Every structure is written in C-alpha cells, then in structure tokens.
C-alpha cells in the first residue's frame, strides 16, 4: 500500500484514541521507531517527547527488549493461564513483589491499565463482600483524576472536567473530594485535606476503597500534589479499615524520580496498579498487586475465588519483555538520568512563565508541563510540533513532555524550545 492509500483507508475506517470520524485530527504515518526518534513515512524524523503515552522509558526498539521478545517467541508465545503457569510470569511476579512497597505480595496480570484498575476495584468490592459488608459499594477519590476508559474506571475519573463526563448518567455514582492541591513540595495547607476527611467520615460505612494516583494526576490535568496529602489519606485508611488503591499506571517505574510515586510519601497501599512502562512500552501488559490481607480476605469469602480471568492473562511474550525492561531499568543510572531531565525541564521551561498565554509551568521527574490560559488548538499545535521535528501531543490547556529516560540533553532542548514557542503562541 502506498502512504497516501494507508492514510486514506485509515481516515475512512479506523478509529484513533479520542478522535472524531467526521473531522479527524491529522494522523502521521510512522514507519520506524528507534531510540528516541520516530521516523515518518515521508522521511522526516521526530524526537519523541511522549514516550508513547508515558510508557517507552528506554526509547524504542531497545536491543535488550527486542532480544527478550525474540527469544521468548521461539519457546512459547502464549498459553492459557488457567491451570497452567510458566517461568516468565513467575519471574516477573517475583520482581514486582521485590520492588514494590513491602506488603504487596499477590499479583494479578492483565493486559491494560484500565483492566488493572478494574481488577483493583473488583478486589476491593470482593474483599468487603467476603466479610459480609454488602453496604460498602462506594469508592472515594478526588477530582482531577484519570483511571481509564472502562466503565468502573470511568466512574472514578473527574465527572465534570474529565473525558467521560457525558457518561455520568450511566456510571456508578462515587464520592469526589476536591483536587488535592497545593503543588508538590509546597507548604502544606490543612484545608485541602479537610474536605476529603469530611467526605470519608460522613460515608465511612459505605466506602470500600479510596483510589488515587499518587502525587501526580496525569491525564486528568497533569497536576502534582503534596505527598503529605497521600500520607494523611493512608492514616485515615489505617484508622477506618478502608482500603487504599494506588494507581501507579502512569507514575510507576521511575517517572516521578522515585521507583514508585508512593515512595515520595513513604506509604504502601493495600492494592497497587502498574502498566505502561512495565514492559518499557513494548508490549501490552499491566498488573494489580495486593497485600496478603486483601487476597486472603477475598479467599476466605463464600465464593473464595477472585472473579476475573482475561484470555491473555500473563502473556509470556509480554512477561519476558517486562522482566528484561525491569532488569534494564535497575541496571541503568535511571535516578541520575531522571533527575538531570527534571533539572533541564525546570530550567528550560521556566521562561514560559513570563508569557501572558501561560498559567503555570511545572516539572517533576521526567514530566514537564506548561499549562496555558486557554485551550490549545490541537490540530494546529500538532502540525507546529512536527514542523519543529518533535513529537508532542497537547490536550486541553496542557502542553507537556514525558520523554524517554535515555533522552540526551540536546534532544531534550529541541523539545523544550518547541514547547516554549508553542506555549507563547498557542495558536
Ligand atoms: N490509570 C492511569 C493513571 C493512567 O494514566 C491510565 C492511562 O493513561 C490508565 C489508568 C489506563 O491505562 P490504559 O490506557 O493502559 O488502559
């Protein structure tokens, strides 16, 4: 197929994420992705600032991951996980149990972040059902969150400013405290937590779990909030027995400067979800980890089994790549790299703050955000970035970069300078 035919068929027949079929945004055909570069069909090369939606932490086609995939493909590409186990799944689970906060020790594999969160919520509901507490059907969360696109995960996304507001009539109704500002590391303000505590106390007997993205709210607004907030949430959960679910899909594996964002607050959740960078962005895989208390609570119930079992659960190819990605991360100087990226993002994005088109500039780990005063024109922005030789995909009022950890300073500068110019003239 010629590139023009590919584009034509794509435009007429294929849905892209969050995209109209009548007036679609521009779509760029990519032929090859290698290191931190995307190679377009027309020969242009773009420095990637998105890590494929925050997943490709080692860059693309890393030889170690390619090799792990090829070796596993020669042995066993997939087998059902019901009644069968295999080395890649066990080796990956043992790595996850070792590297995540201590009490998390039971692992459920699934194939996407949304399903991992769905499973976490199901675990929480089943835990309480097993105890005979049938009233606990509510989840408590905060505004500004994003947890996925399936129905229960949509029900804990921001109901007003999030992507799924239109479904509110058909979604389960849960409890929302205000956005947990202030910004990361800033002076703590009790008032931000009071509303959360009041809501929890007023509904204590109905709440199964609190669900939060630790310290960084991603697709709901790219906001950073104080770890102290998370510490206090943990304290309230300890006091009341309500479970704490940490959604580390976006933040896990070093993105915020610690291996998991919960570490900023020094807390461990009862249930934790990981995905995205779990396989270095190469394969689709996610996992939900739980404490023995949660897992055994579920198993002591009337039904005793956790009622979930995807066809591609613990896919060996994905598990083998995830093991290789974790080993690669752990043997690399990723902390130094992420810290250097944070410093450069702070320095090079800071000048945007002077523009009257810009509301805020912030950076944490390998995340740099410029929030504009008005929503940006996505199509125009996308064209601008491609012309500048970078891949950045803004949304709403957010122009942000989450580059691979292996991005060299010169390439990062290309990205930050393009973002600076875009934010000053947001089209
Ligand atoms: N949770 C968080 C915090 C996310 O950022 C995302 C995706 O961006 C998800 C869940 C959903 O993951 P997936 O897109 O793999 O279903």
TrEMBL record:
<comment type="similarity">
    <text>Belongs to the class-III pyridoxal-phosphate-dependent aminotransferase family. BioA subfamily.</text>
</comment>
<comment type="function">
    <text>Catalyzes the transfer of the alpha-amino group from S-adenosyl-L-methionine (SAM) to 7-keto-8-aminopelargonic acid (KAPA) to form 7,8-diaminopelargonic acid (DAPA). It is the only aminotransferase known to utilize SAM as an amino donor.</text>
</comment>
<dbReference type="GO" id="GO:0030170">
    <property type="term" value="F:pyridoxal phosphate binding"/>
</dbReference>
<feature type="binding site">
    <location>
        <begin position="310"/>
        <end position="311"/>
    </location>
    <ligand>
        <name>pyridoxal 5'-phosphate</name>
    </ligand>
</feature>
<dbReference type="GO" id="GO:0005737">
    <property type="term" value="C:cytoplasm"/>
</dbReference>
<dbReference type="InterPro" id="IPR015422">
    <property type="entry name" value="PyrdxlP-dep_Trfase_small"/>
</dbReference>
<feature type="binding site">
    <location>
        <position position="309"/>
    </location>
    <ligand>
        <name>substrate</name>
    </ligand>
</feature>
<feature type="binding site">
    <location>
        <position position="247"/>
    </location>
    <ligand>
        <name>pyridoxal 5'-phosphate</name>
    </ligand>
</feature>
<feature type="site" description="Participates in the substrate recognition with KAPA and in a stacking interaction with the adenine ring of SAM">
    <location>
        <position position="18"/>
    </location>
</feature>
<dbReference type="Pfam" id="PF00202">
    <property type="entry name" value="Aminotran_3"/>
</dbReference>
<feature type="binding site">
    <location>
        <position position="276"/>
    </location>
    <ligand>
        <name>substrate</name>
    </ligand>
</feature>
<comment type="subunit">
    <text>Homodimer.</text>
</comment>
<protein>
    <recommendedName>
        <fullName>Adenosylmethionine-8-amino-7-oxononanoate aminotransferase</fullName>
        <ecNumber>2.6.1.62</ecNumber>
    </recommendedName>
</protein>
<keyword id="KW-0808">Transferase</keyword>
<dbReference type="InterPro" id="IPR005814">
    <property type="entry name" value="Aminotrans_3"/>
</dbReference>
<feature type="binding site">
    <location>
        <position position="393"/>
    </location>
    <ligand>
        <name>substrate</name>
    </ligand>
</feature>
<dbReference type="InterPro" id="IPR015421">
    <property type="entry name" value="PyrdxlP-dep_Trfase_major"/>
</dbReference>
<dbReference type="InterPro" id="IPR015424">
    <property type="entry name" value="PyrdxlP-dep_Trfase"/>
</dbReference>
<feature type="binding site">
    <location>
        <position position="53"/>
    </location>
    <ligand>
        <name>substrate</name>
    </ligand>
</feature>
<feature type="binding site">
    <location>
        <begin position="113"/>
        <end position="114"/>
    </location>
    <ligand>
        <name>pyridoxal 5'-phosphate</name>
    </ligand>
</feature>
<keyword id="KW-0093">Biotin biosynthesis</keyword>
<comment type="pathway">
    <text>Cofactor biosynthesis; biotin biosynthesis; 7,8-diaminononanoate from 8-amino-7-oxononanoate (SAM route): step 1/1.</text>
</comment>
<dbReference type="InterPro" id="IPR049704">
    <property type="entry name" value="Aminotrans_3_PPA_site"/>
</dbReference>
<dbReference type="GO" id="GO:0009102">
    <property type="term" value="P:biotin biosynthetic process"/>
</dbReference>
<dbReference type="GO" id="GO:0004015">
    <property type="term" value="F:adenosylmethionine-8-amino-7-oxononanoate transaminase activity"/>
</dbReference>
<keyword id="KW-0032">Aminotransferase</keyword>
<dbReference type="InterPro" id="IPR005815">
    <property type="entry name" value="BioA"/>
</dbReference>
<keyword id="KW-0949">S-adenosyl-L-methionine</keyword>
<feature type="modified residue" description="N6-(pyridoxal phosphate)lysine">
    <location>
        <position position="276"/>
    </location>
</feature>
<keyword id="KW-0963">Cytoplasm</keyword>
<feature type="binding site">
    <location>
        <position position="146"/>
    </location>
    <ligand>
        <name>substrate</name>
    </ligand>
</feature>
<keyword id="KW-0663">Pyridoxal phosphate</keyword>
